[in-house]
Amino acid sequence: MSQRQIVQVFEQYQKSRMQFVQTVADLAARPQNIEILRNAGVMSMLRPLLLDVVPSVQQTAALALGRLADHSDDLAEAVVKEDILPQLVQSLASQNRFYKKAAAFVLRAVAKHSPELSQAVVACGGVDALVLCLEEFDPGVKEAATWALGYIARHNALLSQSVVDAGAVPLLVLCLLEPEIALKRIAASTLSDISKHTPELAQTVVDTGAIAHLAQMILNPDAKLKVGTA
């Protein structure tokens, strides 16, 4: 077998992995396919692909997992039981912006279902990793992280406090100053999710100077932005 033929074997393997994760991600976007994918053991197949040597395979595997977890609490629990969360969190610090957005989506998709699943995200260091993403230059990464933090904080005061303790609030206030309307809106919503549980949490948000920025946003002509600050 020639060198070229040997190389082609590896190229074909890479193409097959990419085709697999892309197809699964597409299938996972349709609710009628979810149970079939689960019964086929898709979670355990996607997990090793999060560590693939090809970044696009990693990112698409994370996207597929996020879509699956987003569908139901059972599938979100499967992500936790497969020990996928620590793997995602560990990779967040070193990967590119596309992976970070996909990983934040998975954390959000898991956290949204219940306080218990949100606590699983907290326990594996997910909140700290998401707060680091708020310091990224890319607004899409900030938006994905902000959204995930909001889903964690909205459940109860204890989870909100974990978001506060990780240093999220000052960075969320900075997001209010960004030019992107979507980021402003989600940051305002997340600050609301943090502050709604107790007077003490509300005071934490007030102490960062958030109110002045939120008041300015209410004057913005964008209707969706006004809804986020209401």
UniProtKB/TrEMBL annotation:
| Entry's Gene Ontology BP terms | epithelial cilium movement involved in extracellular fluid movement; filopodium assembly; neuron projection extension; sperm axoneme assembly
Looking up SUPFAM superfamilies in the UniProt record yields: ARM repeat
- Entry superkingdom: Eukaryota
Give the UniProt entry's GO cellular component terms.
acrosomal vesicle; axoneme; extracellular region; microtubule cytoskeleton; sperm principal piece
Q: InterPro entries recorded for this chain?
A: ARM-like, ARM-type_fold, Armadillo
Protein name listed in UniProt: Sperm-associated antigen 6-like
- UniProt GO molecular function: microtubule binding
Q: Which Pfam families match?
A: Arm
Query: Which organism's genome codes for this protein?
Result: Stegastes partitus
